[in-house]
Amino acid sequence: MKIHVYDTHVHTTTGQYIHFDVLVDDDNVNHVAQYAKRYLDSLGVSTNNIEQSRCNFCHSEMAPPEVQENIVLHGHSILRL
């Protein structure tokens, strides 16, 4: 499975820096921002607490099995960096 990697950087109002990749297939490219927000919510980071963020397409690659499984089950996979 070929996936697309979106490099995501978030700076919160409290000075926290969060760096992660959102990994998606062709069918879920339009949902990257939604997946990133959902991930931040799971960390307890509200959009009200975000000072600066960016989520940019980085590259495409072949996905390892565990990433493929997450994408099949959830539409995406997150890789915390």
Automatic annotation (TrEMBL):
SUPFAM superfamilies hit by this protein: NE1680-like
InterPro entries for the chain: DUF2024, NE1680-like_sf
Name of the featured protein: DUF2024 family protein
Protein species of origin: Colwellia asteriadis
Source lineage: Bacteria, Pseudomonadati, Pseudomonadota, Gammaproteobacteria, Alteromonadales
